[in-house]
Every structure is written in structure tokens, then in C-alpha cells.
């Protein structure tokens, strides 16, 4: 329940609509994540993963009666918790960070000099050139600057929305090793969304929990990872199954579920072969 100090993130009875006259993006979501956990949420596009992360970050207001959304024992909207960092994909598209400003000046302007040790460690991990001009670098390089900017201040809860998608394999691996070590050393909690199956390759040792969302609800609540003989996931997967194969199976199930709904009246995707 909300207020339980064991759980860093505690959500119950959460339903959310982007507009009053649209179908809900989240439906009666319950979620408990313990302190120090690292949870990966798997699900197809439109499952509600980004919306959930944005709500936990306080970026979308929830007016559903009875909904409880607590982070670090504090109501996200009425008593905003400190130490929560949200990193999303929209940052790289912001005109402010696409202007002609040198990376070193940009980091100084947001207080990087106050966090020199962590900043410098991240600059090395992310292989950032301090002389880059923000308007003249690739999306992947801009993403590295975002990660340095967002992670150089100590965080207690980290909400990641697809921000590793632009990184090359080596930088991504070094970053995830840093985040894992940081989480373990400080008991910090990570919740991240990934949906592209190639991203899961090589992630087996990162999460402590995995979960599956479909059409606004949890099909599989956060379950301890990896799969073992006494795991909650053993009814679905054999012990030792890789995260890549878990994600692949869940996404195939999502597609099959959507296609079954389409047979029963849901708007269909794909080609319209009955039309010229």
C-alpha cells in the first residue's frame, strides 16, 4: 500500500485517459517496486509504458478518484518527492538543446561544476567531447550529452524512457554497467521502458525484475529476474531463458492478442487488400 517504506514506488487503482472522450491509456494499474530494484517493462507500442513513467515523474496529472501514486512514500502530485530523475526521448528534440552552444558551456550552465566527480565519470563512460557544438552533432551524440546532464546529480529513483535507443552497443553497455553499480551501491531504484527486441540482447545481468504491459495494464506484474526454478516466471519460461527471448515471446503474444481483437471489431492495422 502507499506509504510502505519498503517500496520505493507504490501505485494502486490508477486509470488514466489523455482526453475525457478517449479510451483509457492505463486501466486500474497496481505496481509495487522495492528500493534498489531495477525493473524493465516490456510491451508493444501503445501499451501505456511511457504514460506510466510520465505520471510517476509528475509530468501528467491524474484526477482518477481513489488513485494512489506514491514515490519514496510521498504523493507524486501533492508532495513531490526529491531525488527523482526522468529521462525521455523528447529532450533531444527540444530547440534549446539544438542551438549553437558548446557542450562544456551547456553542462556548466546547468551546474555541472557542482558535481564534478560524477560528471567527469559520465563524460568518460559516454565518450562525450566537451568541444562538441550541440547543433552540429548526431542524435546519438546529443543523447549522450542528455544522459550526462541527467545522471550527474545523485538520484534515488531513475525513470528511463527509451533513452538508450540512440547509443552504440559499447557505450550502452558501459552506461548500463554504471547504472547497475550505482543502484547497488546506493540502493537506488530504476524503472525503464524498452520495446525494441534488439535492445534486450546483452541485458540479462541488468534487471532485478521484469514486467509485461499490454493495452494499459500489467499482464505480468514485476517478477524477480532471472528465471529460476522457484521464479514467478517459471510457469511461462524455462529457467535460464534469456531476456531477449522473454521479450520476443511477450511481444508476439501482444500481436496475437491485437489480431484477435481485430477479428472482433477492433480497428485493424496493416494493408487494406479489399481496396484499390
TrEMBL record:
Record-annotated ABC transporter domain positions: 9-240
PROSITE patterns: ABC_TRANSPORTER_2
Gene3D superfamilies in the cross-refs: P-loop containing nucleotide triphosphate hydrolases
Entry keyword set: ATP-binding, Nucleotide-binding
Keyword Lipid biosynthesis attributed: no
Top-rank lineage group of the source organism: Eukaryota
UniProt GO MF annotations: ATP binding; ATP hydrolysis activity
Name of the protein described by the UniProt record: ABC transporter domain-containing protein
